[in-house]
Amino acid sequence: MMSLLGRTDVDAGEVFVNFNQNITSLAVATSGGYSLYSLGSVDSTLDKIYHTKSDELFLIERLFESSLVAIVSQRAPRKLKVCHFKKQSEICNYSYANTILAVKLNRERLIVCLEESLYIHNIQDMKVVHTIRDTPCNPQGLCALSSSSEHCYLAYPGSVTAGEVQIFDAINLHAKTMIPAHDTPLAALAFSPSGTEIATASERGTVIRVFSSQDGSRLFELRRGLKRCVSIVSLSFSTCAEYLVSSSNTETVHIFRLDRSATETAEGHGSKQSSDDWMGFLSKTVTSYLPTQVTDVFSQGRAFASVTLPEAGVRRMCAIATIQKQLRLLIASQDGYLYVYSIPTVEGAECQLIKRHDLRLEDHYAMDIKGA
């Protein structure tokens, strides 16, 4: 989720965009109000579920497909409102000592993130059940909450100088594990749909790692780039958990395929490489001759596919979901567009643009700017 506290984006005509937990709807907020869209027929149309005029919002979260939304306005940045949008009623509101930087929801918990504390609410009655105080300074409101009720974990930075991830059990209310994920501070976090895995990226932005959220073991290491340090804005597992997508302040979106069968085979039968797997061959051959930093590069997964968008410097939220039995890459950008791409079945092939929707239009369907 984006934290847009200054809201200079609103003056520029830009919007706040955010997917719900299972990528079935999109929330869009502008200076005049907010809208909720269904993604069920996004290949052709973008159905508007709800629209209301309201104060300028900088945070909005919908709970799955329910009528529950949590919102924070620019006018009252310390106040959280929980509303039933279909009944157009306010369920409750809470005020906090400092500005709310992020809000996360699942079917068990509601999390409110401040700069140096986290509040855990019970979703059933909205009461605060626990407060994590004196957390490392977190001015970006970086945190993640698993959408799973079975593995209901909260993740947040454990250090301001290194990329440590603190995993907290939000049901049993105790710290679970601390993962030393990166040498530099964290920039992005995302749980898998099951909550058993967490993806991380640091401020350097060149390497993305995936860990077990239960024991902290490293599962995947993915290289976004070799030299170009970037600011990663969004990390997201696909709803099938087979892919991971990342966006940054560059014009490129990267999709990684998480081959768990290969990982399990390697663990069970050694690191046998196929004859055409030249990267694997090189990594084995040169390990004893090159520094660890160099040989690590050979073992890091490359992007399965990528998308190049018109310009850099635009914040984009990305998601991969199965829509009408087809796997789709969805890119919601702060300049007011939703891009829909097909995902190739062959590594290295191009993602094909299916639709580009304009999120700023006021009719019942977002206009199709470019057809399939």
UniProtKB/TrEMBL annotation:
GO biological process: autophagosome assembly; cellular response to starvation; defense response to virus; glycophagy; larval midgut cell programmed cell death; larval midgut histolysis; macroautophagy; regulation of defense response to virus
InterPro entries: PROPPIN (IPR048720), WD40/YVTN_repeat-like_dom_sf (IPR015943), WD40_repeat_dom_sf (IPR036322), WD40_rpt (IPR001680)
Protein's UniProt keywords contain Zinc: no
Gene that produces this protein: Atg18a
Organism the protein comes from: Drosophila melanogaster (Fruit fly)
Taxonomic classification: Eukaryota, Metazoa, Ecdysozoa, Arthropoda, Hexapoda
Tagged with keyword Repeat: yes
Keyword set, alphabetical order: Autophagy, Repeat, WD repeat
Source domain of life: Eukaryota
Similarity comment: Belongs to the WD repeat PROPPIN family.
Membrane-spanning ranges: none
Protein name as catalogued: Autophagy-related 18a, isoform F
One Pfam family recorded for the sequence: PROPPIN
